[in-house]
Design a protein that fits this description.
By secondary structure, this protein is an alpha/beta fold. It contains 16 helices and 13 strands. The longest helix is centred in the middle third of the chain and has 16 residues. The radius of gyration is 21 Å and the shape is globular. The chain binds pyridoxal-5'-phosphate and zinc ion.
Length: 413
């Protein structure tokens, strides 16, 4: 018995039984949506069942997840999600916004949003008796899989570009996964990991390939519903700002809100804004051109977590904005660095790809896309500790001084 009804292809609409396919649509390679029986769910569960839960993790949403509780209570696997929400008044004032929230997903066990996806994929792997889970990653998805697999005593294999930030590679190794650093970019690591999965019979977690990753990522939408939408009497739809690489986070969040709408637990769809670096903007380019055809780019951005030539979940990512009256916004790497520094002055330490969402909000406000009475939530997707080199580029260096008061006086003057 599976907890979901069927898969539906996001390209051709074909439906597949839960045991019929594993990854993408066999005829066109489209990403598969996991579809539930919302009529039954609406009768069986009430919002209270969730909002009164004592479980401070993604597992509070078990009735809406396609997997069962994998166990391992008291481990990192059970502390994914339910991340902090801030109301930074100074930032709101600076941009003339009446309502602004920042949700810090850098505060996950392995310090990125990717833990949400990896937790659900590890649970799925247990259910289908897959011994080895493999993923390609720019770093965070791998660290998340390695960490969640370690917590659940499961084997993981990670392919990452050899240029991945050292902290991310260190996490992979410390969590005890088998690591291969590919002398190539993320896209090449992706293709190799799929070939290796087929060759060696490994279960592949790849973003925008495995349908269960979006099901983990949708839990952020559920938290935004509980932490903001259900508590505030919002007159206008919440505007959610999300940074985008492969497009799986934004697709997952869209899916989460669609679930809530289907259940009747929210009455209006939030507007979803995708933010890309202008050096890696395949989806934003398609949005601006008004087409669903996504043309690959040659990605060059310091925001390594969103540096993607060919987005693996591009179509659904595009629709997350077009179907919710949202938009795509492009920002420069310079603006991303400035955003790191600005968030830092609120006590929020974010890696470049995470600060990208905030840079996007600044741009959207400056361009008049966001009005002062639009309620806004910015999702911070990864911790600044992940990429210290980039953080250093965002700020001035500290002076080195002799250990004396006179030397101190001199540099202070
Ligand atoms: C993966 C990642 C993203 C982008 O997610 P996609 O699903 O690739 O669009 C953004 N920020 C951080 C920190 C990430 O690790
Ligand atoms: Zn299809």
């Amino acid at each position: 018995m599976t907890k979901f009804s069927f898969y539906r292809c996001s390209v051709c609409g074909a439906e597949f039984a839960p045991d019929e396919v594993t990854y993408t649509c066999p005829s066109d390679g489209g990403n598969l949506d996991i579809v539930f029986d919302y009529d039954s769910l609406r009768k069986e569960i009430s919002p209270d069942l969730i909002t009164t839960s004592q479980e401070a993790s993604v597992w509070r949403y078990l009735p809406l997840l396609p997997v069962d509780d994998p166990g391992y209570a008291g481990t990192a696997l059970h502390s994914v999600g339910w991340t902090p929400l801030y109301t930074p008044e100074l930032l709101a004032k600076e941009m003339n916004l009446k309502k602004l929230w920042i949700k810090d997903d850098g505060r996950n066990p392995t310090a990125s949003f990717k833990d949400r996806a990896s937790a659900i994929v590890v649970a799925r792997a247990k259910e289908i008796n897959a011994d080895v889970i493999v993923t390609a990653s720019t770093g965070n998805a791998g660290a998340a899989l390695a960490g969640m697999a370690a917590a659940a005593n499961h084997q993981a294999v990670i392919f990452a570009p050899k240029t991945a930030p050292p902290a991310k590679v260190a996490q992979l190794l410390v969590f005890g996964s088998r690591v291969f650093l590919v002398d190539g970019n993320y896209d090449q690591a992706f293709d190799l990991s799929v070939e290796a999965a087929n060759e060696f019979g490994w279960y592949c977690r790849n973003t925008g390939y495995n349908p269960f990753t979006a099901e983990g990522k949708k839990t952020a939408a559920y938290e935004i519903w509980e932490q903001v939408i259900a508590k505030q009497n919002l007159k206008k739809p919440l505007c959610v700002f999300v940074s985008v690489g492969d497009g799986n986070i934004i697709s997952g969040i869209h899916k989460g809100f669609k679930d809530l709408l289907a259940l009747g637990w929210i009455n209006q769809m939030p507007r979803i804004f995708g933010i890309q670096s202008d050096g890696s903007a395949a989806i934003a380019n398609a949005f601006n051109a008004g087409t669903e055809v996504i043309t690959p780019v040659q990605a060059t951005t310091l925001a390594d977590s969103i540096s993607v030539d060919l987005p693996r979940d591009g179509l659904r990512a595009l629709r997350a904005a077009t179907e919710t009256n949202g938009a795509y916004v492009k920002v420069s790497d310079k603006a991303i660095l400035r955003a790191i520094a600005r968030l830092g002055r609120e006590g929020i330490f974010s890696e470049p790809a995470a600060a990208t969402a905030y840079a996007g909000l600044q741009k959207a406000v400056a361009d008049g896309q966001i009005m002062d009475d639009d309620p806004v939530l910015v999702l911070i997707t990864g911790s600044g500790l992940k990429d210290v080199k980039a953080a250093e580029q965002a700020v001035k260096t500290a002076p080195i001084i002799e250990p004396s008061l006179s030397a101190l006086r001199k540099v202070m003057a």
